[in-house]
Structures are given as C-alpha cells and as structure tokens.
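Handout, section B. The chain below has 688 residues.
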Amino acid sequence: MQVSSLNEVKIYSLSAGRSLPEWLSDRKKRALQKKDVDIRRRIELIQDFEMPTVSTKIKVSRDGQYIMAVGTYKPRVRCFDTYQLSQKFERCLDSEVVTFEILSDDYSKIVFLECGRFVEFHSQHGHYYKTRIPKFGRDFSYHYPSCDLYFVGASSEVYRLNLEQGRFLNSLQTDASESSVCDINPVHFLFAMGTAEGKVECWDPRTRNRVGLLDCALSSVTADAEIEGLPSISALKFDGALNMAVGTSTGQVLLYDLRSSNPLIVKDHHYGLPIKSIQFQHQLDLIISADSRIIKMWNKDTGKIFTSMEPEHAINDVCLYPNSGMLMTANEAPKMNIYYIPVLGPAPKWCSFLDNLTEELEENPESTVYDDYKFVTRKDLENLGLAHLIGSSLLRAYMHGFFMDIRLYHKAKMMANPFAYEEYRREKIRQKIEETRAQRVQLKKLPKVNKELALKLIEEEGEEQQITRKKKQKNLPSLLKDDRFKVMFENPDFQVDEQSEEFRLLNPLVSKISEKRKRKLKILEELEAQGQEEEEEPEGKASDAESSESSDDEKGWVEEVRKQRKLLRQEEKLQRRERFKEDQQTLLTPQFFEIKEGEEFRSFKDSAKKQKLMKTTLEDRLKLEEKLGTLNVSDTTVGSKQATFKLKKSEQQKKQQEAERRHRQERKTLRRPASHLKSKRGRGRLFH
C-alpha cells in the first residue's frame, strides 16, 4: 500500500504493488509471499480486481453490493461482489463496450452499448436480447418515468427506445452534426446532450421540445488559454435540480446554474486533454474531474484545489463509491486502481477495517528522505561556511547531521571552493598511482564454473595483447566479457567433464598444461582467501625447463594416448563387471502386449522390415515393387513414363475375399445336381 500526501490530504493506494498471475498454484503463491516483502505487505481488497488487458468503464450498483467493469481483450464484463470480496461472474461479449448502464438496484438488468451499433440487454441469468441502432452510438441515458433509452452518437438525431413497448419511438431532431455525451437530471428529468460544436442542448422529454441551448465552447475560452481548435463536449453531469458540470475536449470544466447561460466557474486542467469523467462529492462540496493523466478534486464554490492524483497509467473512467471516501478508476492497464481518502468519508461497510489500518499508520508516521535534499554533517557545514544556519528553517536536523536544499548546497560549494585545486591535485595523484598498479600482476577473480577454461582464456588474451601491441592491431573482444558466453561460466550444466572419454582421447597433451594451470588455480585461491595481492610469478619451473618440456611434448604424445586408452579399457572392464552383477541381482518380469481385434501376430521382424523399407531410396523401393508385381512401368507414345500401382490388400480384405470365394464355390456345387436332374427328366420324356 502506497501513501501520498498533497495539501495535507493523505491518499492510500490500495492496489499498489505487484499482482500474482492467476495460473500460479496456492502453494507457489504462499512461497512467494514468504520470500518477497512487497507481496506480503500488499493489500488485495477485492480478489482478482483486474481485466486481461484494459478496463474502459466501471460502475457501482445502487445497492452498493456489486461493482461492474467492462474491458478487453476479449470484450467482457466482470461483476464483483463486495460482500464476498471476490468476482461473482464474468460474461464475454461479441464486440467492445462503449458504455453501459445498470437499470436495477442489483445486477439483474444491464444495458450495453457496443461499438458495432449493437444494444445488448442482460438479465440475471445472462444475455437476454440484442438490437441495433441506425448510427454508431457514443452514449445513452435511461429515463425512468417513461422507460425510454436515449441514444446519442454520430448523427443529428437522438434515438429513443421504449423498453415497455419494446420498439423505437420518434427520434429527436437536433441542430448538432454529432453528439458525444448525454445525461438526465435525477430530479426533474431534463435531458441534456453535448455536441461536437461545443454546445449543450436541453430537451423536455414530456413535450419532446428543446428548452435551452448553452454555448460552452465560447465560455471555456479564458484570457490566458491557448486555443488550437474548437472545443467539443466530452463529459456532462447533473448535480441536484439546478447545477450542471460540463467537460470539454481541451481540458476545461465549466460549472453552470441552469437559470443562467454564463458559467459560475471555469476550471482548467492545463494538460489540453479531454475530460473523461466528472463526479460530485457532496460532503465537502467538491467536484472530482479527470482526464487521461490526472484526477483533480476542487471546491465548486471557489475553484481551489483540494488534492490531485496522477496514476501510473492513462485513466479511462472514474467511479466514486457512494457515501464513502473510496475512489475506483478504470485504466489502460490490467489492474484497476482503488484509492481510499479518509478526508472524503469513511470506508464502506464491507471494508471497514481500512479505517483502523489508516489510523495505525497515522499514529506511527515514517520519516521520509527526499531526492531534492542533501544530507550534510556539522563538519561539512563548517567547511562550507554555513555553520551559522544551524537552528534556522533552512536546515532540518536528522540523526547525526542535517538536511538542506540541494540548490543551496551547490551554491555554497561553488562560493566556498571555486577552483578546487587541492581536490584536482589529489585526483591526479590517485590516477597516476592506479596506472603504476595496473602494470603489476593483478589478482583476477575467476568464475565459479569452468575455472580452468577461464584461466586459459586469460592467459591467451595476455599473449594476444602482447602480439597486438607489437603489430599495432586492435584488441579482439574477450569471451569472458561477452554476454553470449556468460552462461558458460555461470550455469553448472556447462561444466567441462575432464573425466569423459572424449576429453581424455582428444586432449592427451593438455594434461601437463592443465597440471600447471591447477597449480596456478590453487595459488590464486589461497591468495583470495588471504586477501593478498599476487605481485610475483607463481611457483613453478623455470622458463628454460618449460621450453624443454615443449620439445618433449611431441615425443610423449603417443605414450600419453596409449596410457589413456589402457585406462579407458580398464574402466570399461570394471563397468561391465558391475553391470553383470546388477543383472544377476535383478529379477526379470514377463511383459504382455495386447493385439487389436482382426489382426494376427506374425513376428517382430515385420516392423523391422518396414523400418528398413522406409529408410531405402525411392529407386530401390520401385525396383522391389516391380519384382513383387505391385508396380508396372511402361513407356508412352509421347516419350514419358507411365506407372501403375496395385494397392496391397490387408489381412481383413484377404479373409473377406477368401470367404466370398468359398461361398461362390459352395453355390456352384449346389446348383450342379439340380440342373443335372432337369436334363435327365427332359431326356426321359423325349424318349418316352
């Protein structure tokens, strides 16, 4: 939980801190909470209070039990139950939601205006009905006495949909080319709409006639304001029977009394961004206006700033929980922010523990260190000649020193020490000493993995540097400093196994060099433990002995290979004996395999033959099939080749054909005696 303070108004950000991914198991979440202090200290007021990508609108039901939010991606609506502090349901939609309205006291009746000109109705069980309006909609309002929905958008008409009759009524014809926002007064039900020309038209729903017109674009222009274009209306909100607040696309908020065409007060956000939301706070007579960058709270009578908030991500919508000091925002981020401001009112009854938590934090305030202050000791003040400021308001006592303004510190330092020759001289001497130390043999820290390889690379680099100095060539980059090979010296999986067969056969001569390197490694480890610098060469043989050894290496190469092969054979014999002992100790259990119905088991050789056939070339397979008679290749008159294939018959097909052949043979044998008798009878009659 983060705490910020502006104008002595404390703002508690309840959604600050890292959020854990949904796919983590409960066990891993508990393990992370034990390790990470930030995760352990965070407050998750409502579980999974977020959207997959972006949240666009957020509202609270009239009974205060449900918080509903819409967002993307995919387009969806989520309902959160405040009594259970968790998500109640989630419903996905066909297209993105422009805005929505909760018609009932709970979540049982909701209307969504979607970007594809669709109007979707949801009941308690889910989707109920879907219809379409003629033009793209931008906002709508519900008129409770007549059950009418008023839609405004990319048209000069205001479309009316009666929910009692279930049909569209005659639309209202306005003078505007387009409309962006609308609202209905909760007291006398006056309908107001903001246009793209910067005007507000007021209509009486009973007579369906326009009763007023306000030119807010002209009134929003002040003496010190810079205008780049015609401001349009981007936000509209009624307060009681007579007050109305209007937000423009250039960042001004105008407060009107409906009895006057001139605004009571004009408040500029000074960011030039369109106003996204306007809310009224009646306990302190405040107006909460928000653009995509900042939320400002100011007095509606004087226009004086009460406090302000700048979230990390762009703001899409602001919702004030009724009769409390809780504020919720929909942002261009997955997480929806929740702020608690105790000055605005108490915490809601479903999270009353926030009052006790904030009281405890106020009782134990934490001291804060600011970036624009410099910490100095009494000795520093004496060197700067500012010791006489001790006890004044320019210094703030803290621990063993004082905090002072960084600008005052820089000015005093420049005046007290304009040239700083002594510091410059000390710096030059230190640089010379470091240059002389660089010529000595330095102790280099080796990595934990592949130490011998790293030492070999360091030695080779030293030799290459000497060659490049003589030839005046550019030094090549070091493998140890290259990020591509960094894992080879950090991950234990990349450790070179010197006992493997490949290493021992391919590197017979490396053994002597590796012995020297191992000695050097031991000396380096001893020096690291003792914290001493290596200024002399490590103990070893003289350079003459090394040169003689290099000549003997060629002679001893064959002997070294023979030794390694003998050792490998001995190790193989030992491994065979161990395997033989293990095989004698293990008991073999028979394994059974199930054959599918209609198939006969021949042998395991059939599968091996098939695998061999698949590995042979196409030419060999064609020759084999020609021998078997399943393939016939002939030349055509044109000069091309013609190949005729005969598909192999499966075992079932062969059995079926054999059964048919036997059946035909039986029928033939049955027909023969009958035909033979007929011929005999015929002959008898003829001769009779």
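Note. The longest strand covers residues 54-60. Compare this with the example in section A.
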